[in-house]
Design a protein that fits this description.
430 residues, alpha+beta, Defensin A-like, 4 domains, 4-stranded antiparallel sheet, 3-stranded antiparallel sheet, 18 helices, 9 strands, IF2/IF5, initiation factor, ARM-type_fold, Transl_init_fac_IF2/IF5_dom
């Protein structure tokens, strides 16, 4: 059976983990008794984690037609003749309203009914609770026919298996892409060398003579004419010009001034490093580099020459890329992940440092200092980087285990950690 990604926004993602069967319909009957049978509604509903009666009823509400789902036979019928594409479009609306998390877009949610008879979606990944619009006609049907509070273990195991397959496919595709890039890079270098060989004419005799004369001039430039300014030489010259007593007084003053110089330099360094000036200066430098359109690889080279620590570089890069965080911070992190990856590669090349831990601590520090909106989305940020294979489960657990659980950042991350632990244990059982 053909599969497709859950959610229209994920249609083009070849490695998206959540799949559902492509809808299949069949027109039955004639005249006033004509009906549309959604043949694989049971399989679609299982993939979405929702009762098939909900999706069937939603079609009827939106089309203004009678609809019925038979629990015994698993038959989903909607009165009238309806195109598959039309019903598929309505299913996408159902997914957006009743399946996907309003925060992270993850379809791994469950429907909750509050004490005040309101519907909510609770995300098992990021912990976000979405309020469902109660003006929709389907909400009344859901209140009368409440869902089971938890998904079955089989459904979750199936999702974890699909995730493993996606990761394997992604790794294979990445390896193939690397091979193609290496081959293309080798071919392009050969072409450039051939062009240079054919396009550059041999230098003439006059040009050779001019080059030799320039080299001679350069040799002369290397010679530096200077006066010996050492203390011994100065003392000798002074004693020659002044009396012994006067020369001693002058040299004593010079020695005292030389002793004071290191203290002045040290004070200047402390002033420059104090009050976060070094951090602000590094942020400003990175912003300037990004403003000049540097690629991630060029940025990596530029940061490699900086004397700041890896932690300082990571915090400065986060500040330069995302400012004060703000709403939509998590989406921006995924969009600009290549710059974070470039810095992580640089750290690994330099000393094999724990670059994932540096990234997590940098995010923790950034979200703690930035505005509250950034802290709200910290779980979405870490989940996004985890989905992009930039963070491993073991590193995330180690970082969270060593952190201060009472901090606002760790409190926001806690639901995602719990989800990750449950998913890992189910994967081991499977």
């Amino acid at each position: 059976m053909a599969l497709q990604n859950i959610g229209a926004s994920n249609r083009d993602d070849a490695f998206y983990r959540y799949k559902m069967p492509r809808m299949m319909t069949k027109i039955e009957g004639r005249g006033n008794g004509i009906k549309t049978n959604v043949v694989n509604m049971v399989e679609i509903a299982k993939a979405l984690g929702r009762p098939a009666a909900y999706t069937t009823k939603y079609f009827g509400c939106e089309l203004g037609a009678q609809s019925k789902f038979d629990e015994k036979t698993g038959t989903s019928l909607v009165n009238g003749s309806h195109d598959t594409s039309k019903l598929a479009g309505l299913l996408e609306n159902f997914i957006k309203k009743y399946v996907q998390c309003y925060g992270c877009g993850n379809p791994e949610t469950e429907i909750l009914i509050t004490k005040t008879q309101m519907l909510q979606l609770k995300c098992a990944a990021c912990g976000f609770i979405s309020d469902v619009d109660m003006r929709d006609k389907l909400t009344a049907f859901i209140l009368k026919h409440p869902p089971e509070q938890k998904k079955s273990g089989k459904d979750k195991k199936a999702m974890r298996r699909a995730e493993k397959e996606r990761i394997k496919e992604g790794e294979a595709a990445d390896e193939e892409m690397k091979k193609l890039k290496k081959k293309a890079a080798g071919t392009s270098k050969e072409k450039v060398l051939r062009k240079k060989e054919h396009s550059s004419p041999p230098p003439s005799q006059d040009e050779n003579e001019q080059a030799e004369s320039e080299e001679d001039d350069d040799d002369d430039d290397d010679v530096q004419w200077q006066t010996d300014t050492s203390r011994e030489a100065a003392e000798k010259r002074m004693k020659e010009q002044l009396s012994a007593a006067t020369a001693d007084m002058v040299m004593l003053t010079t020695i005292e001034e030389e002793k004071k110089k290191p203290e002045v330099v040290e004070k200047k360094k402390l002033q420059e490093n104090g009050d976060g000036n070094a951090h602000e200066k590094l942020v400003s430098e990175i912003k300037e580099l990004l403003g000049n359109g540097l690629t991630p690889s060029q940025l990596k080279t530029a940061l490699a020459s900086n004397s700041a620590s890896h932690k300082e570089k990571m915090e400065a890069l986060l500040s330069a890329l995302f400012g004060d965080g703000g709403k939509g911070f998590a989406k921006e992190v995924v969009k600009k992940k290549k710059y974070l990856m470039a810095l992580m590669v640089m750290m690994q090349e330099e000393a094999g440092s724990p670059q994932q831990m540096v990234l997590l601590k940098g995010i923790e520090s950034f979200c703690g200092k930035a505005n509250p909106e950034a802290a709200k989305e910290v779980a979405l940020v870490i989940k996004g980087l985890y989905d992009e294979d930039m963070l491993d489960e073991e590193v995330i657990f180690g970082w969270y285990g060593a952190g201060n659980k009472s901090s606002p950042v760790m409190k926001k991350v806690a639901p995602f950690i719990e989800w990750l632990k449950n998913a890992e244990s189910e994967s081991e059982e499977g």
